[in-house]
Amino acid sequence: MSDTEQTLANLLKEDRRFEPPAELAANANVTAEAYDAAAADPEAFWAAQAERLSWSQPWEQVLDWSEPPFAKWFVGGKLNAAYNCVDRHVEAGRGDKVALHWVGEPEGDARDLTYAELQAEVAKAANALIDLGVRTGDRVAIYMPMIPEAIVAMLACARLGAPHTVVFGGFSADALASRIVDCGAKVVITADGGYRRGAASALKPAVDDARGKAAEHGHTVDKVLVVRRTGQEVAFDEGTDVWWHDVVDGASSEHTPEAFDAEHPLYVMYTSGTTGKPKGILHTTGGYLTGAAYTHHAVFDLKPETDVYWCTADIGWVTGHSYIVYGPLANGVTQVLYEGTPDHPEPGRWWKIISDYKVSLFYTAPTAIRSFMKQGREVPDRHDLSSLRILGSVGEPINPEAYVWYRHVIGGDRTPVVDTWWQTETGAMMISPLPGVTAGKPGSAMTPLPGITAEVVDEDGNPVPNGSGGYLVVTEPWPSMLRTIYGDDKRFVDTYWSRFRKQGYYFAGDGAKKDDEGHIWVLGRVDDVMNVSGHRLSTTEIESALISHPKVAESAVVGATDPDTGQAVVAYVILRDEAGDGGPDIIKELSDHVRTQIGPIAKPRQIMIVPELPKTRSGKIMRRLLRDVAEGRDVGDTQTLADASIMELISASKATTT
Ligand code: 6R9
């Protein structure tokens, strides 16, 4: 039995079931009938979901799928995403309702923003962006800490129909530059810095650097709008840089939002693919907002009058886009937004926030849950978590023990856990329990949501029988699906639609298994994409970074199972002859190099300097063997290797932890 099969066999022995709480089931937003209704008439179902939004002009056609895989949803409809997320709640008399309970990292640095205040801020920022030359269709890059201005910036762009591309603040200047160049961002919105683990961490220098690098590629950034957050010293280029407080604070809070076509681009989010170059996933307005709002309403059983919601993601990831900004705000929720890390200044920070703000719906990642398990239950037990009603999980498979701990220790055994499978590309949750309907199985994402049709198929695209594994595919288009890879339609078709071209299925890149009852267990990527703490990293991207170091001849990167982060980056490196043994600091040098090229999250857990890499006769690196070494297993079958003795050399090489 292979390792994956063993894991699967263990998983499928899992027979614990958690029924929905009776009261929740009785008052659930979505009931079991929704599955049948959606299956009977998917377009009518999605049209009803789109009615959650305010449209300035109704659509003429729900779906135009005449040129697959290029979908158009709500054809002819017009709307403004920012109006839907902010203004309409104010117009409906809910202006005094808190939109954001913001909790900054320095203790006591907190602020509440009502919907009316948010509306004024967004309008001012939109007016300021117009003054800086931003027009409908222009791209704006956002590189910010988790402060309210980050959300204001996103919504101001949406209001103008200027697609934003938010780059995670932990990414390096190089990564930022390549994204700025790829989407041709005209303006960058940033801050001097943000707070992390008690210290001010700079952002502006990376923007300066990225602007220079973009210029080397022939791309000019016209303006950089800078929020003063930490007060740290920054270089200021009078021709380009503009302080937020100089141009936004004094701007008019009157701005009439224009309605854009349902298919008008809303944002580009870069994500790792199997090749070195990140893919700019393009989402458009009407379908995306419909998907985000509907799933947030359904999966969190959202009762906007009474619930307080908190998603711990960063806005630099798709989860922050769909489940901090667009879904929750379109639904008019009160939510917590926080800056910093879970365990600073104290390990119980998150639990204190939940108890302070009476959070009822909570959404986080398995990697965080595992790190809390390690600290022990004494930490959460010191806080009153009785306000919690539903717990969500996203980003990677949640192992049954973490699921049960989450439900038991954090949820007091009352709360359903919704394990939500989706991707940057899908825009919104796709496979998940419904908290008022589904009897949850720890470790399973369970069932496609009403309106979504997913399958597990074999090599030929045929559904596998219950009890078997295969490729996870989506069989019909859905409103929040990506529309293309920015500037590269061919790559879009090749990457997602060519594996099962005949059937016209979207292939997600994940493997999954159907259990005896047909419930879906997502197993993780079947391609060269790693998942480290819920963050997608490409093996090729890190290999390319390593190879760009002058001492490196060749490298191979694998994702090895890690008890804390799910997977961890393990790099094998062959040095150039002239580099000798690389010198005493070679490991640190290489590790720092990856850090500056991509960012701290890509830093390998281990770097091994090896004399050779195992390759097949056709020259393909045998990553399976390298994963075996990285995970401390005996190297199995090496028959297909061009030179079997290589594995002995590699296993003997000293592993060095970075
Ligand atoms: C939302 C998000 C997508 C990849 C996806 C899969 C993994 C996400 C999961 C899950 C198992 C879940 N993934 N949620 N695997 N169970 N509930 O994470 O988007 O960053 O694009 O990552 O994450 O491998 O393909 P993204």
TrEMBL record:
Residues given in the record as Mg(2+) binding sites: H549, V552
Requisite cofactors: Mg(2+)
A Pfam family assignment: AMP-binding_C
Modification N6-acetyllysine, positions: K620
AMP-binding enzyme C-terminal domain span: 541-620
UniProt KW keywords: Acetylation, ATP-binding, Ligase, Magnesium, Metal-binding, Nucleotide-binding
Binding site residues for CoA: R196, R197, G198, A199, T319, S533, R595
GO cellular component, one term: cytosol
Enzyme nomenclature, EC number: 6.2.1.1
SUPFAM superfamilies membership: Acetyl-CoA synthetase-like
Name this protein carries in UniProt: Acetyl-coenzyme A synthetase
Organism this protein belongs to: Nocardioides faecalis
